[in-house]
Amino acid sequence: MNVSAPKLAVIGDVHGSAGQLSALLARLPAGYEPIFVGDFVDRGPDPVAVLDTLIANRFRAVKGNHDDKLFRALKGNPVQVGGGLAATLERIRSQSAPWRERLMVWLAELPTVLLFPGIAVVHAYWSPTCPPDEHLWGPRFHDKQGKIYRIRWWSVPEYWTPGIQVVFGHYHMPVVTPQAVCVDFGAPEGPLAAYLTDTQAFLIELPRQVALPEPGSAL
Ligand SMILES: [Mn+2]
Prior knowledge:
11 strands, 26% helix
């Protein structure tokens, strides 16, 4: 093992799941710095508490596509409001003006990539030469009809960077290779995960509530 490897706990897309986040943080072993791959809002019940946790603790994080869209919406730019953004905006707009100002400063300063020895933490994809848009969305392919496909870059050697393991979220796919580790386990419907970069182990916090089918309903 590389003795100079940083002790990071890279935490996947939280998506408003404040309960899973606080439980996972409480279980982090001593000596690990939590680092976040972005997508703090939308889908889960409490985006405000998640943002409070990040901002109050000054945790290091990168920006996800959902955070970027939230930032553009709060600035008054036209965005397509879907995927839970309407509920997020409603909750954020009910906060105090100072709280919202602090959020805007925090969002404006969020980087899109954090580099460590041998490790790049990013929301979707990083290489030294890729366009910054790909940090948030990953490399994509447009067909002749304009339909967009996500490229599974971790399976394509041309997308890899020698000597760097890219730790990312965004895809909710099981990926653990020397070049790429996905830490998005699908919270809040799925687990929230932390990847411990020195031991290459995962800590898993299960979803808060598992929705069981109603008795007698079709499965
Ligand atoms: Mn996400």
